[in-house]
User: Fold this.
Amino acid sequence: MANEDKQDQESHSRLGDVVKVTLLGWSMAILTANYLGVFQQSLDPTYPASILSGTAASFGLAVGSNRKKKEETRVQDKDAQK
Assistant:
């Protein structure tokens, strides 16, 4: 019984990873095609960008959070120099 449960969890985990990677690929493809002008009408990139950032976050990737930390330390350094 325990072995079957473990196999079920592994298969669900793999399926979830496949879905996440597929969503990452789709959203990157849509955004890239939009920025390259492939679509005849302008496409609102908000939805694919939100899917991309949410899926990347589920893998533990932080797309834009490092910049704020760097800017905060620069401001603090400038204040300390005065």
Notes: The chain has one domain: 2-81. The longest helix spans residues 2-36. The mean pLDDT is 79.
